[in-house]
Amino acid sequence: MSGGRRIIQWIYETYGRTRAALTAVVTRYRARGAVREVGKALGLPEDMTGALAGLVWGWSLEGVRDDQASELNLDTSDPRLALTLELSRELIGTPRHLSQHPGGFVLTSDRLDELVPIEPAAMEDRQVIEWDKDDIDALKFMKVDILGLGMLGCMRRAFALLAEHRGIAMTMASPTLQRDDPAVFAMIQRADTLGVFQIESRAQMSMLPRIKPEKFYDLVIEVAIVRPGPIQGDMVHPYLRRREGKEKPEYPREELRAVLQKTLGVPLFQEQAMKVAIVGAGFTAAEADQLRRAMATFKFTGGVSHFYDKLVEGMVGRGYPRDFAERTFKQIEGFGSYGFPESHAASFAKIAYASSWMKCHHPDIFCAALLNAQPMGFYAPAQIVRDARAHGVEVRPPCINRSRWDCTLEPTRGRYLAVRLGLRMARGLSNLHAAMIVSARGDEQFNSVEGVWRRAGVPPAAIERLADADAFHALAHDRRQALWQVKGLGDKPLPLFAAADAREGRSGPEGDEPMVTLEPLSEGREVVEDYRTIQLSLRAHPLAFLREDLRRRGVKSAAELDQVKDGRHVEVAGVILVRQKPGSAKGVLFITIEDETGIANGILWPDRFEAQRRTVLASAMVGLRGRLQREGIVTHIIIDRVIDYTPLLRSIGDAIPSAATWYASDGKADLPKGAAPDDTPRLRLQSRNFH
Fold first, then answer.
1. Are residues 200 and 132 located together in one domain of the fold?
2. Last residue of one domain, picked from the residues 329, 363, 393
3. 359 & 410 share domain
4. Which residues contact 279 (CB under 8 A, 6 or more apart)?
5. Over residues 189-205, mean pLDDT
6. What's the whole-number mean pLDDT along residues 218-225?
């Protein structure tokens, strides 16, 4: 049970179920869900509604436009399609259903169930009321948010592995994590922060080489500055210019120096904005608190604008230049788009530093803990594993005789322990079936596919998941051979053989099958199967098989961008890892792609995004063609055109043996049950969208 769940149950036990309950959340229709459900109600094919929904970015409020539907070669004059688009746009924002808040608790001194009905929630051992957070705020009830951070769970796992394998007992409060480690900050300055809390995003990685954090408080600023509030308030560039020595901090009055000196004259934190209002414009403490509340609700009420006259005129009246007062108000106004309190930024920076320390000094432990904490963060398991291998960590595949449910660590002769991928990586395998297999294995390793089935008592479908994941290599079975063995299993062991096994304390085969020789899969097909079943491949990167073709097209690799001069036009191709369109970016889309040599980042302006929306949102592999922009060690492609290379990606592993290559030792051609010569799985790589 996670820490958050334990705390939730502690609240119920401490305050009682008649005085504590989770608040409700009014779930409303968004563009994607609206077009899917309206289309379904009107009888549109599922593939059509799926294609329409795929054109929507994030939480769009505009729905699917007619011109976007036309890009799919759909007839927008068709009455059903036209009605679907119209009704789905009208449905956006309409309440769909009532759900439970993940951790928003109402606590009362008297019985809560005398004021509002309390009902069992969908999740076990939880209860919920029908009021949402806005209702609670209007009633002035106390609400406590019990929210968890995935990285805290990851660090808990990392500390446990550190104690088990290195004999080092640590927590977040350990003295080691209270000191500034030069090696850790050197890693952070290189933006070598994949997987690290808060500073792994494209924007953070671009900022790190410019800020060059050298001490903990620099991380506090780093966490706070890459936020919509500081960006909207035009605080980022002035701070960077001053940190780089290109501009001197401005303190018109000495009283402001004490408030703003540690952030070089730029109000990055909400507390600073309040103090500026008090010492610079003569606000009372109560008025400054009203300003804080207005900043928190600005995007809903525009409340900060009500303080314009008092703040600006107050500063001018106290001798500040008007242009300085205007800039200060604009910066404070930016906090309405989400700026951090200093305490919040410091707390996040603490976790960022701890995770950076773990990655710097124990990348093997960090990798295993991060994989066991998935899903979380910006990057998928494939990128986490690749990054660990780049740092000298050996990663081993899932194994029927060595893997547990979680990823574990194994001895090596090198500096770091090897990460053994856990059975959790096998797509579709349940924790229960994995536990049954590990328990049955005990100290006696399995020696056959049938032995796993008979000893563990799991259904053949579970064993097929492991065969698909190539987990039987320890038995000298490749993926295809193991799948062949699985197809020979029945629904359950025959009673006569099961009784004999129980009597003799062993498990034997139910019969002898003739040896079967199966043609091995090609390397490309193996990679396709790896990605399909465990989300990554330890054999090769998919683009390694396409490099010669891409080179003939004039496409550079990500590593080759280091040799391209600033301002030159270039094309780089890769699988899409992340699409990010922050609200503070004014419609700009950031794309991160990966090839076999590394990662490349692209910037797509709003007009170019709209012109190529379908390609950007629907493609798995793209080419980014545009102008290279370099600032220090940070490189981007300012994208002119996005080319869809998904068909090229899907060609990997297309070659599949014909039926004649499946043959038994008696010469009779045969196919495994359910297989066909043209059953060619396509390479599916899932990207992540952030908005």
1. no
2. 393
3. no
4. 255, 256, 259
5. 88
6. 89
In Å, how far are 107, 251, 262, 288, 399 from 272, measured between CA atoms? 32, 14, 10, 11, 55
267 domain residue, yes or no? no
Same domain, residue pair 364 and 219: yes
Reference 307, options 329, 327, 323, 339; nearest CA is 329
Q: What average pLDDT is seen over the chain?
A: 82
Residues 212 and 352 in one domain: yes
The domain that contains 627 carries what CATH number? 2.40.50.140
User: Among 653, 638, 558, which Cα is nearest to 598's?
Assistant: 558
Q: Write out the two tokens for 107.
A: 């606590």
d(CA 13, CA 8): 9
Q: How far apart, in whole angstroms, are the C-alpha atoms of residue 600 and residue 598?
A: 7
Q: How many CB atoms lie within 10 A of CB 175?
A: 7
For residues 270 and 335, is the Cβ–Cβ distance under 8 A? yes
Q: Say if residues 280 and 253 touch (Cβ distance below 8 Å).
A: yes
The answer to the question of residue 327 being in a domain is: no
The rounded distance, in Å, linking the Cα atoms of 573 and 542 is 12
Report the sign of the C-alpha dihedral through residues 533, 534, 535, 541, in that order. negative
196 shares a domain with 107: no
d(Cα 88, Cα 200) in Å, to the nearest integer? 36
Backbone angles phi, psi at 529, to 5 degrees: -65, -35
Is residue 504 located within the same domain as residue 413? yes
Rounded CA-CA distance 469/669 in Å is: 26
DSSP β-bridge partners for residue 104 = 145
Q: How far apart are CA 169 and CA 164, in angstroms?
A: 9
CA angle 190, 416, 180 (to 5 degrees): 40
Q: Are 657 and 472 in contact (CB under 8 A)?
A: no
* Long-range own/partner contacts, residues 120-126 (CB < 8 A, 24 or more apart): 121/22, 125/9, 125/12, 126/8, 126/22, 126/100
Contact 628, 570 (CB under 8 A): yes
Last residue of a domain, one of 99, 124, 145: 145
- Give the C-alpha distances (Å, rounded to integers) separating 404 from 422, 431, 468: 5, 10, 17
Find all residues with CB under 8 Å of 487, minimum gap 6, and list them.
672, 673, 674
Q: Which of 302, 295, 308, 301 is nearest to 339 (CA)?
A: 295
590: tokens are 């950031």
422-444: average pLDDT:
92
Give a yes or no: residue 683 inside a domain: no
Binning the chain into helix, strand and coil, the percentages to the nearest 5 are 50, 15, 35
How far the first Cα of the chain sits from its last, in Å, is 30
Q: CA nearest 507: which of 564, 441, 568? A: 441
Which pLDDT belongs to residue 658? 30
Give me the DSSP letters along 151-175. HHHHHHHHHHHHHHHH-----TT-G
> How many domains does the chain contain in total?
4
Look up residue 360 and give its two tokens: 């710097």
Output the six-digit token pair for 432.
């229960």
Reported in sequence order, the residue ranges of 296-397 that DSSP labels E, i.e. its strands, are: 395-396
Q: Which domain holds residue 446?
A: 404-510
Same domain (yes/no): 129, 211: no
302: left (phi over 0), alpha (psi -120 to 50) or beta: left
Here the tokens at position 664 are 């038994």
- Summarize pLDDT for 587-627 with one digit per residue, the tens: 788 888 999 998 898 999 988 888 888 888 888 899 999 99
CA 358/CA 364 separation, integer angstroms: 9
- With 70 as the cut, is the pLDDT of residue 220 above it? yes
Residue 384, pLDDT score: 93
Question: Do 621 and 598 sit in the same domain of this protein?
Answer: yes
- What percent of the chain lies above the pLDDT cut of 70? 85
With respect to residue 10, please indicate whether it lies within any of the assigned structural domains. yes
Confidence at residue 661, expressed as pLDDT on a 0 to 100 scale: 29
Residues in the chain: 691
